[in-house]
Design brief:
Radius of gyration: 17 Å
Keywords: Oxidoreductase
Order of helices and strands: EHEHEHEHEHEHHE
Family: Belongs to the short-chain dehydrogenases/reductases (SDR) family.
Strand order of the largest sheet: 3-2-1-4-5-6-7
CATH topology: Rossmann fold
Number of helices: 7
Protein name: 3-oxoacyl-[acyl-carrier protein] reductase
CATH superfamily: NAD(P)-binding Rossmann-like Domain
Helix content: 40-55%
Structural class: alpha/beta
Distance between the termini: 34 Å
Oligomer: single chain
Organism: Sodalis ligni
Bound molecules: NADPH dihydro-nicotinamide-adenine-dinucleotide phosphate
GO molecular function: oxidoreductase activity
CATH architecture: 3-Layer(aba) Sandwich
């Protein structure tokens, strides 16, 4: 049964990694799915072809999350193409490492723009199109609660901001019947951490002894997007293989 049939979703940062898995999963569940990308045009087009071959409705939109106007246009284009907007998934995110004594101000600003400001901009634009039953889901991170090692302070701060915004938006939008939640993945195998030495360090920190898969995070997002999750709002859902246990 296609539980999201008739629903329209927008996923930011859908060309690769967790975002691409979310696009695949929401489309498989029956939603029409638009997604944004900034740099990975080839990957985006390949994903469109893959989803269409399976009979899905999908649209790729080039929109850098650092550009507020581009984010607003992506929301408007999604609603224009598919008629409505039911589900917004704020997934685009970047990770720039560095300890406090060496971290560049430009990197601080870039990470805040993409990981935090773009979430606010997309939510503000999306709720103009959303009605009761609307769903907003953001990819936060367990680093909001547990950083674990040096060099991740500013990234962790951006995910802490996601967590706080999620609670606040849930209060703002609850009266309109729109739920707002964040998933907080632990270490998950994607391009963001595609360095074997880093993964070798992380694995023993996981209760399950392995990192997560993109589709495992996508399945939690799909659950939150679905009709059975209507009583969950303002929640930060950890999915981390026991990394913080
Ligand atoms: P990837 O680097 O594999 O993918 C990132 C995605 O975001 C790509 O599709 C990329 O598209 C897009 N993106 C990056 N910058 C921008 C931008 N400025 N505008 C629009 N799209 C952008 O990372 P993950 O899949 O691992 O990360 C996805 C989310 O999950 C992020 O928010 C990340 O912080 C979070 N996360 C990841 C964890 C992990 O261990 N992997 C753990 C916890 C959270 P393009 O290439 O086209 O720019």
């Amino acid at each position: 049964t296609k539980i999201l049939l008739g629903k329209v979703a927008l996923v930011t940062g859908g060309s690769r990694g967790i975002g691409a898995a979310i696009v695949r999963r929401l489309a498989a569940d029956g939603a029409a799915v638009a997604f944004t990308f900034a740099a990975s045009e080839e990957r985006a087009l390949a994903l469109v072809a893959e989803v269409e071959a399976l009979g899905g409705k999908v649209l790729a939109i080039k929109a850098d999350s650092g550009d507020a106007e581009a984010v607003r246009r992506a929301v408007a284009r999604t609603a224009g193409a598919f008629g409505v907007l039911d589900i917004l998934v704020n997934n685009a995110g970047i990770l720039i490492h560095g300890k406090v004594d060496e971290f560049a101000l430009e990197d601080f600003d870039r990470m805040v723009d993409v990981n935090v400001r773009a979430v606010f901009v997309a939510v503000q634009a999306a709720i103009k199109h959303m009605t009761t039953g609307g769903r907003i889901i953001t990819t936060g991170s367990v680093v909001a609660d547990y950083t674990g090692f040096p060099g991740a302070s500013i990234y962790s701060m951006t995910k802490g901001a996601v967590s706080a915004m999620t609670r606040g938006f849930a209060r703002d939008l609850g009266p309109r019947g729109i739920t707002v939640n964040a998933v907080q993945p632990g270490p998950t195998e994607t391009d963001i951490n595609d360095i074997e030495s880093q993964r070798a360090m992380l694995r023993p920190m996981m209760a399950l002894g392995r990192m997560g898969k993109d589709w495992e995070v996508a399945s939690l997002v799909a659950y939150l997007a679905g009709p059975q999750a209507g009583f969950i709002t303002g929640s930060l859902l950890t999915i981390d293989g026991g990394y913080t246990a």
